[in-house]
Design brief:
Three copies of one chain form a homotrimer. Chain A is an alpha+beta fold and 237 residues long. Helix content of chain A is 15%, strand content 27%. Chain A contains four helices and twelve strands. In chain A, the strands form two sheets. Chain A has a seven-stranded antiparallel sheet. A five-stranded mixed sheet of chain A has the order 1-3-2-4-5, covered by helices on one side. The longest helix of chain A has 14 residues. At the A-B interface, loops of A face loops of B.
Chain lengths: 237, 237, 237
């Protein structure tokens, strides 16, 4: 990057995601990129399908430009950002001359990001792409009158469970139940509970509900992981 | 940060501290910040009490400006730096407009640090604070004529034990004893001992004594952790 | 570094190598430094012999300048880069005034790198050094007519095994055998195999062969580690 765009300012978002975990990367981008300057270029290299016929893409959106494999890693950011241009990366003149089959982050995405940092437009990088790959994400099931079924969308490095339901979608006086554990009501923050208590609260990521074990690991404590169902009812019923 | 202070230079000190470990963060700041330029702004987000009534503070000192939760994380740096101004962060006009209850690093500390980077004075950020929270730190016990009781202050990522006693506080020809292990005398550096040997030496952090297992993990080997007592006597007695 | 060379641009290559692992550091430099700008200064602090009589060095090469302990960590980069100047760091006027016995990264290498960033020449830093320490690296054994014996040179954080043999050194239609596992033929990339399959392919690092377990950890699956023999024959024989 710096060889081609010496003025570029590099910020590492995270190098500690679990290997091959496209959904964890999708969540991280959804969580963090709204807080970057709009002219940021986000280069994503969680790419287990590297070298296969999976496409790669560049997308210009209202909250930054993305360069990534087309493997669903942008599923969540594309849902909530206006996209002005999106192309399939198929203009090899902007790549490294020798492209390996197993490291497109170095050989394709980084040179492309450097060209973008130098002012090249997204549309120069390839032909229009209108059907980006989407991950099969869970969504809350509001079907039953007595109970909403939400799901764990993400487990962060504190072991905290981020759910796929947001504050405005909750019933009044909610009761949460997952893997045999019940949580009554909403807390405001961790220290409103005693250490070792399982709590539910509105998290700092776009009003998604979260479940944490104060001073501990909720994932380990409950055995929950991404996809685990969380049953939510109202205490009023 | 870069949205508000695009010229700021970001340096990551560490993202690998154990969760909720305020003392480990306090030690890291004590160890590293003297080697940063004096006009650095140190933004600290080890903050298990986020959203509670714990205060937050900004402090201008002879070795840099700090923005942090008032949870004791500055205990060690404030002990050894001259503080010129210290305020409680209670001027919300310098915060993000929407402040979550669980991520003040993003919503309060980062905007405040950006304002400081743009030249705002510490005193603008809130009202004076004179009683910052201190951690209940151990100190060596020099009470007995035959033996000093020092303690493990920090365990680093090599498993090395940093003690709360400094070189100038040692008796001549010291003998160390912890968890049934005895170490006679001082080494100069790791490679002066054979691999797998437990050694004591004057470390590189402000002359604190350290105990290491060469090419191994002293913490694991001895079972010691933060707070473990280390008995020190002189071989001369 | 920034105290002495405020204009310097810092890029962290890696802070996650196993403790004391000089060979892992040597491989990382071999893998990554060709992709940095030629005027980069690479500061290396994997230094278990710190404070002993091991020398320290600075080397100006066709692909960057290196400041490092003379413990073999440059073995691989020096094999493939033209060296124009190499010196032993023995001019203390370019060091921190107080030098600890256990942290030369801070007290010697960083000040020296800052001086280099400020334009000082490598030759000013000490006297010429012509016999840098080399690690006892493995090399493929081509002695037998029926079988080449290659070795694991590096295990990356995906558990992938990088071998000490390159693509141009392979027999036609190669068959690999290690720790009782046989792999027939070469794959192009991970996703050409089914998840959980052990595959061999030409990796992205200088055409070295690699062995991976798709969506898994080859090192754990095979029990192989650095130095493990890999027997390679041709299916044609």
């Amino acid at each position: 990057l710096l060889s081609m765009a010496p003025h570029a300012l590099l910020v590492d978002l995270c190098h500690l995601l679990p290997a091959h975990d496209i959904l964890a990367a999708a969540f991280l981008l959804y969580q963090a990129t709204p807080f970057f300057p709009c002219d940021s270029i986000h280069l994503v290299v969680v790419d287990p399908g590297v070298g296969s016929d999976r496409r790669a893409l560049a997308a210009r959106t209202a909250c930054g430009t993305f360069v990534a494999p087309d493997n669903g890693v942008l599923s969540l950011v594309l849902d909530c950002s206006e996209v002005s241009t999106m192309v399939c990366l198929n203009a090899p003149e902007y790549w490294r001359s020798a492209v390996s089959a197993t490291f497109h982050g170095r050989d394709i995405f980084a040179p492309v990001a450097a060209h973008l940092a130098n002012g090249l437009s997204v549309s120069s990088l390839g032909s229009p792409l209108v059907d980006p790959t989407r991950l099969p994400l869970t969504a809350p099931d509001f079907g039953s009158p007595d109970s909403i079924i939400a799901h764990v969308l993400h487990v962060d490095h504190f072991g905290t469970l981020v759910l796929d339901i947001r504050a405005d979608q909750l019933p009044p006086r909610p009761v949460f139940e997952l893997t045999g554990h019940e949580i009554r009501g909403l807390w405001r923050t961790y220290s409103d509970a005693v250490p070792g208590q399982l709590i539910a609260y509105v998290g700092s990521t776009r009003n998604h509900l979260e479940i944490a074990l104060t001073y501990g690991q909720a994932a380990q404590h409950t055995g929950a992981s991404v996809g685990t169902s969380v049953f939510i009812r109202s205490e009023d019923r």
